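Reopening this one. Same input as before:
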Amino acid sequence: MIKKMSYNNSTIVILGFLLLINLAIFSHTVESKELLFDQAMLINQTASFQGRKWTTQCPHAPIQISQGTVSYNGVPRFLVMITNLCTDCLVARVHLHCGWFASVNLVNPNDFKRINYDDCLVNGGRPIGSGHVIEFQYSNTRPYPLSLASFVCSY
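Same output, byte for byte:
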């Protein structure tokens, strides 16, 4: 015989609260594992960069960040283009100031990923060739101000 369970409102609120706490803990665990994975990827990328000399002193390596509105239907959609304007160099480990960047639609984390508050990684930290463009779209109620934080270059 199956007994029907009945719950009062306070029990439902407590169960909902416990569920939210568990989701927050799980989410934090997943983010921590992703950060460890990202750190391991950067170490591997550093090893693959060893054939080149990389420096943070890049006076002739301009990076352009362009952003425009693609659509206003529903939640506004924005197009971002990050371009290596250097004619004879590679740039890598490009980080942007991005606040609490978030998007309604999924942004490919290989192209652009917020790794912390005001720290977004472009192209997974991999090199961006001369004249190459990394582009992605995101949806939010307003555009996020994006600006260059740091990068390395190789001539």
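So the earlier flakiness isn't reproducible anymore. For the record, The mean pLDDT is 77.
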